[in-house]
Design a protein that fits this description.
CATH class of the largest domain: Mainly Beta
CATH architecture of the largest domain: Sandwich
Order of helices and strands: EHEHEEEEEHEHHEHHHHHHH
Radius of gyration: 22 Å
CATH topology of the largest domain: Jelly Rolls
Number of domains: 2
Largest sheet: 7 strands, antiparallel
Helix content: 40-55%
Strand content: 15-25%
Distance between the termini: 33 Å
Number of helices: 12
Structural class: alpha+beta
Low-confidence stretches: 177-182
Mean pLDDT: 83
Oligomer: single chain
Length: about 300
Amino acid sequence: MKTESLEQFYTDKKRPVPEGVNKITGHMNVFRLEECAHDKPIHYARRDYYKVTLLRGHNRYHYADKSIEVNGTSLIFFNPQVPYTWEYLAPNPTGYFCIFTPGFFTEKSRIPLSELPMFVPGGKPAYVLSDIQDEAFSGLFEKMLDEIDSDYPFKYDLLHSYLTEMIHLALKTEAANNNVYEHPNASTRITAVFRELLERQFPVETPMHKMNMRSAADYANALSVHVNHLNRAVKATTGKTTTNLINERLADEACALLKHTDWNVAEISNSLGFEEPSHFNNFFKKHTGETPRRFRVV
């Protein structure tokens, strides 16, 4: 699945890439939607940044295995873990959006992004706004737009404050539930998200690393869906079980670690989440036909 980087974002919007954007951990920017809208199809993809969008008009968002249709003003919170896309159901949408990296928020906040309800995978990212709420959130976006182009030396502290205020205002607003429905392509969507979460566990880069998502239930919990729902969707889309796909990816990573590192078998076993090296040995032989030590020397 495609992952859109910050550099690609600026390229697609035909805007200059800020100097050092691929190196800094704390990046934030804000835009008027109508100045960035284009006719190019927006693909279902994961981004490597967070995004908050205020959108007016008739629109449909596809987020994980659900779709949210809104006719009016909506505020949507997108996180890097969950692939998403949207479609305009009426012409000439208006609104705002801001993008930011995890570092921008966490370096100035005591609240982890992963604990905020709108950014939790499987959570409720959409908020339908009244006219009064639209005015309040639009006012915050306008303040952001004024500040982003200012010469004030502490403007990013102020921008962080505006973003934090926006998050808290949203948490006081009831999330959109009535317009959520399961898209006809829901199995494909949830399978795509499952694969994305699976790939995010790799590569294993140090022997001290230990995988914490090893089972179908682990991934179902991360997506806030029942494990049976995830299993049915994955089976219908790929012809394989969720467990088979997890084990295949584990076996591939085990082979790579055996061939390209000098870690001993116990270290590899531990990093891949096996409680005992003997369990890893049995797993590896089942999936490759060879023991780990034999595979390493061949």
